[in-house]
């Protein structure tokens, strides 16, 4: 595992220490690694949502009414 030296602001360092003191994590390093894993997972989810939104935007707009869109959605659920 790569070894790094990083600095934290006082409030962040105190929060990290509190989490370790509460036995949530065994060390600040473990906690920082967990936070990074969570951020990476969140970024994957954001990228997935962004791709879905871009696909939807690129597919064009509809002139259907609200009721027409609702009826079409319900029919897709019943297939």
Automatic annotation (TrEMBL):
It comes from the Bacteria. Gene3D superfamilies: Antitoxin ParD1-like (6.10.10.120). One of its GO terms (biological process) is regulation of DNA-templated transcription. This is Antitoxin ParD1/3/4. It comes from Cellulophaga tyrosinoxydans. The lineage of its organism: Bacteria, Pseudomonadati, Bacteroidota, Flavobacteriia, Flavobacteriales.
């Amino acid at each position: 595992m790569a070894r790094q030296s990083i600095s934290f602001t006082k409030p962040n360092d105190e929060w990290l220490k509190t989490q370790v003191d509460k036995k949530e994590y065994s060390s600040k390093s473990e906690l920082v690694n967990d936070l990074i894993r969570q951020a990476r997972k969140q970024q994957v989810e954001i990228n997935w949502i962004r791709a879905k939104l871009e696909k939807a935007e690129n597919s064009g707009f509809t002139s259907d009414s609200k009721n027409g869109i609702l009826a079409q959605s319900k029919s897709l659920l019943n297939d």
